[in-house]
Amino acid sequence: MGYKASFRVWRGDDTDGELQDYTVEVNEGEVVLDIIHRLQATQAPDLAVRWNCKAGKCGSCSAEINGRPRLLCMTRMSVFDEDEVITVTPMRTFPVIRDLVTDVSFNYTKAREIPSFTPPADLKPGDYRMQQVDVERSQEFRKCIECFLCQNTCHVVRDHEENKEAFAGPRYLMRIAELEMHPLDVADRRDAAQEEHGLGYCNITKCCTEVCPEGIHITDNALIPMKERVADRKYDPIVWLGNKLFRR
Ligand code: SF4
Ligand code: F3S
Ligand code: FES
Predict the structure, then answer these.
(1) ipTM of the predicted structure?
(2) 40 alpha carbon – ligand 1 mean position (Å)
(3) Which residue's alpha carbon is nearest to atom 8 within ligand 1?
(4) What is the 78 CA–ligand 1 centroid distance (Å)?
(5) Which domains does the chain have, with CATH numbers?
(6) Could you tell me if the CB of 111 is within 6 A of ligand 3?
(7) Helical pair 224-234 and 170-180, crossing angle rounded to 10 deg
(8) What is the pTM of this model?
(9) How far does the centroid of ligand 1 lie from the alpha carbon of residue 86, in Å?
């Protein structure tokens, strides 16, 4: 059965904004994105929202619902009480462009900073051979839809604009782990992970993992193993001696 829901939606741009109240119809089986679309169709034709697939696969519709980072298209209205006020705000970590749309270019910058897949020099494309067992671990990370909810949630940058320069964020630290675990990647990414991409800032709070709509175990399966690899290298007595002797 349909009912009328109370919504509070953040409206504004990069200079100013505020929450605006709306009462809007909800029908059975709908998700929050349906309600946002109904608002556009009936009361707020200029309401800006980014979306594409409405199937939890394009990663475009990320926002915060009652303060929790979520995909608008994968959040069912049935998880809320009918008399609950539902507040929808843009992702907090990125600059607002307008209404629910944020500028996520921080993430593209971080993606570009990671050296790409580096196969052995004598191996030509087409000659790559891998066993399923070799790619098992990193395959999970390929499920990422780049919604940036984990990037938005991590406290290292969420309240600390000043850390953005030095911290790649969970999604891109996971990318480094994925390449590090790749059976054909010959680049050693451990020093760079720590020194250039800010792995040491992560204190494994696991908030990134909690919000990942793909259910990727970012912390347990990517970040902690990557930290272990970095620690192995850092505290390996041979490496330590080599660094003392040759890196001055
Ligand atoms: Fe989104 Fe998960 Fe990918 Fe992070 S790791 S960008 S939360 S899909
Ligand atoms: Fe941030 Fe995730 Fe680490 S939330 S602190 S990257 S475990
Ligand atoms: Fe594609 Fe929500 S619209 S993930």
Answers:
(1) 0.99
(2) 27
(3) 144
(4) 24
(5) 3-101 (3.10.20.30), 104-240 (1.10.1060.10)
(6) no
(7) 60
(8) 0.92
(9) 24
Q: Is 56 left (phi over 0), alpha (psi -120 to 50) or beta?
A: left
pLDDT tens for the chain, 248 residues: list them. 799 999 999 999 999 999 999 999 999 999 999 999 999 999 999 999 999 999 999 999 999 999 999 999 999 999 999 999 999 999 999 999 999 999 999 999 999 999 999 999 999 889 999 999 999 999 999 999 999 999 999 999 999 999 999 999 999 999 999 999 999 999 999 999 999 999 999 999 999 999 999 999 999 999 999 999 998 876 666 666 666 666 54
Is the Cβ atom of 63 under 6 angstroms away from ligand 3?
no
What phi and psi values does residue 34 have, to the nearest 5 degrees?
Answer: -60, -40
C-beta of 105 in contact with ligand 3 (< 6 A): no
Separation of CA 34 and ligand 3 centre (Å) = 12
